[in-house]
Amino acid sequence: MHSEDTFSTRAAELIRAGRFFFERGWVPATAGNFSARLDERHVAITVSGRHKGELTAEDFLVVDVEGQVRSEGKRPSAELPLHLQIYQRDESLGAVLHTHSVNATLLSRLHRDVLVLEGYEVLKALRGIGTHEARVEVPIFPNDQDVPRLAARVQEYMAEHPEMHGYLIAGHGLYTWGRSVEEACRHVEAFEFLLACEIEMRRLSR
Ligand SMILES: CSC[C@@H](O)[C@@H](O)C(=O)COP(=O)(O)O
Ligand SMILES: [Zn+2]
Known about the structure:
Elements: H1 4-23, E1 33-37, E2 42-46, E3 60-64, H2 80-89, E4 95-99, H3 102-110, E5 114-118, E6 135-141, H4 147-160, E7 166-169, E8 173-178, H5 181-204
Parallel strand pairs: 6-7
Antiparallel strand pairs: 1-2, 1-4, 2-3, 4-8, 5-6, 7-8
Helix pairs in contact: 2-4, 3-5
The structure holds 5-S-methyl-1-O-phosphono-5-thio-D-ribulose and zinc ion.
5-S-methyl-1-O-phosphono-5-thio-D-ribulose binds near residues 29, 30, 31 and 49.
């Protein structure tokens, strides 16, 4: 069972991530949600509707990996099922981060089905990738206000593509994860850099 200390440490890491993302314009107007694993069965996740650049420890609650809320009187992120799907499928994963940057939103509307990232040195910031020659496929799922249905769709796709590092939701944003909050943050930064390159490349090659 996790301690209060674990909760506070994970919350502090996610608060720092929220400030960093907000400063860069990746979580505007209460958009985005963050979570971190506390132990095998429990996760801390942001309360729904909170501003992600101004989080405090009060803006987190505890849920179990089946989605049962363990903190009375707090409503979890509307996108909780997308976080739980990741924790349920892989016990080694420790954090899930969701952002809404302009670049993720635009690219997810310009492309259908999948965005291919290749030829970038920064791909090596993604766990397990050792060369710029890697080909990273970022699937794009249609947005869906029925979040459990969307989570089931992601789950089905991930069963076929277990090597995935993240995905886009059309007109919505990015989901990525890692073994720790630090690794998940690195993945957000890497994806945001790569998405910015892709946008700029399209502009330059017009
Ligand atoms: C402010 S619009 C964004 C929301 O609809 C949603 O997509 C989102 O990312 C934040 O929802 P939340 O329930 O606060 O976790
Ligand atoms: Zn969202």
